[in-house]
Design brief:
The protein is of the alpha+beta class. The protein folds into two domains: 2-49 and 157-225 and 329-391, 3-Layer(bba) Sandwich (FAD/NAD(P)-binding domain), CATH 3.50.50.60; 90-150 and 226-327, D-Amino Acid Oxidase, subunit A, domain 2 (D-Amino Acid Oxidase, Chain A, domain 2), CATH 3.30.9. 26% of the residues lie in helices and 28% in strands. The protein contains ten helices and 19 strands. Strands 1, 2, 9, 10, 11, 12, 18 and 19 form an eight-stranded mixed beta sheet that branches. Strands 6-7-5-14-15-16-13-17 form an eight-stranded mixed beta sheet. The protein has a three-stranded antiparallel beta sheet with strand order 3-8-4. The radius of gyration is 21 Å and the shape is globular. Mean pLDDT is 95; it is low at 389-393.
């Protein structure tokens, strides 16, 4: 028997959980499907913490989204009683020998420019101020520049997903966990979704399948979307002073992706500091991905990214994890109606900077399901920016 829903959401990670929750608030019949039981550690929405910031150096198109997201995180906290969004402050800094203060392509300078443009409260810090306020960056060069945003910080991804799914169920949403989608087809002014356990008919379908999107939808999405494993490390503290004095940070110290790391505050009671990088050299698939982290990889991370750059942190790895970014050719989101499937919105390629926006995008996708459009301008994430010829292959 085919069950009918107004809206169905495929994938219940960051974007999917937010979309199901927002749709459930409207009173329509909504279902969510996930091959695992979220929150889980098989995709991109785990690892204890995710950076959030109002001045999003990746592009001006993200600023209105994250402003809405900060509002919604607070609303979710009020509804659930859970702590989801920690405003620890965000430090974006550049300390590299070849730093050019006139290079507006520098991530820190780009972040400052956006904050000025959008009236985001911030401070611009020189090297002496960075050293005095943040002891883990005592070794920055005299030419270093920093951006400090007091409203930035981090969100708790697993808690955010769990809270939104529980609230959605409380509002009447149906969640099908542990089910794999085997087919999607247009039918009767809607979409038919087949899983390994059931068949659903939806007036509207939102696909937020993350790492699995390319395999699920085939070409051209399989060609556009690449999945890159990322290793996360929690290093033991050598200096207890970091607790309460360390912000969330993004640190540019050299060229390319290897010249940037990011991390989170040393949290009371945890005795460690989480530090990671983003790599775009080695891609994989969800099925073939190596989710282990070796001791040698932890030591390499310390030598290349921590030693001589972040003080008060030892080489001892107390915890590690692997998550995966689904990345588009230009490293920006893809949010658009499917070129062949009617009534279907494809949301993928969050490209490693999606979680901070997810609560607001869930609201926008719910608006699309209900009204055919969202209040946010998402046009910059459309498929039109890719070659039209690729859509017809």
């Amino acid at each position: 028997m085919t069950e009918h829903f107004h809206s169905v959401v495929l994938g219940l990670g960051a974007m999917g959980a937010a979309t199901v929750y927002q749709l459930s608030r409207s009173g329509v019949r909504v279902a969510g499907i996930d091959r695992f039981s979220p929150p889980h550690d098989q995709g991109s929405s785990h690892g204890d913490t995710r950076i959030t910031r109002l001045s999003v150096g990746e592009g001006a198109q993200y600023v209105p989204i994250v402003r809405n997201a900060h509002r919604i995180w607070r609303e979710l906290e009020a509804l659930s009683g859970e702590s989801l969004f920690e405003q620890t402050g965000l430090l974006v800094l550049t300390s590299r020998p070849d730093f050019n203060p006139d290079d507006r392509g520098d991530f820190t300078l780009r972040t400052i420019d956006l904050a000025v443009r959008y009236g985001i409260d911030h401070e611009v810090l020189g090297a002496d101020e960075i050293r005095a306020r943040f002891p883990q960056f005592a070794d920055v060069l005299d030419s270093a520049v920093g951006y400090f945003e007091s409203e930035g910080g981090f969100v708790r991804p697993e808690r955010c997903i769990d809270v939104q799914l529980k609230l959605a169920q409380g509002n009447g949403a149906t969640l099908f966990r542990g089910e794999t989608v085997t087919g999607i087809a247009a039918q009767d002014n809607g979409v038919v979704i087949t899983t390994d356990k059931r068949t659903l008919h939806a007036d509207k379908l939102v696909i937020t399948a993350g790492n699995w999107t390319g395999d699920l939808l085939g070409e051209p999405f399989g060609k556009w979307l690449k999945v890159y494993p990322q290793r996360l490390f929690w290093f033991a503290l050598d200096d207890a002073r970091l607790v309460g004095r360390s912000p969330t940070f993004i640190f540019t110290h050299g060229e390319g992706d290897d010249g940037v790391n990011y991390g989170f505050p040393a949290i009371k009671g945890e005795g460690s500091l989480k530090i990671a990088t983003a790599q775009y050299r080695s891609s994989s698939t969800p099925a073939a991905m190596d989710r282990t982290v070796s001791a040698a990889q932890g030591q390499q991370m310390f030598e290349e990214q921590v030693k001589g750059r972040i003080a008060g942190v030892s080489s001892t790895v107390v915890k590690s994890a692997v998550c995966a970014y689904t990345v588009s050719p230009d490293r920006h989101f893809i949010i658009d109606e499917h070129p062949a499937l009617p009534n279907t919105l494809v949301v993928s390629a969050c490209s490693g900077h999606g979680f901070k926006h997810s609560s607001a995008l869930g609201e926008a996708f719910a608006q699309w399901c209900l009204h055919g459009k969202s209040e946010l301008d998402l046009s910059s994430f459309s498929l039109a920016r890719f070659k039209e010829s690729a859509l017809t292959r």
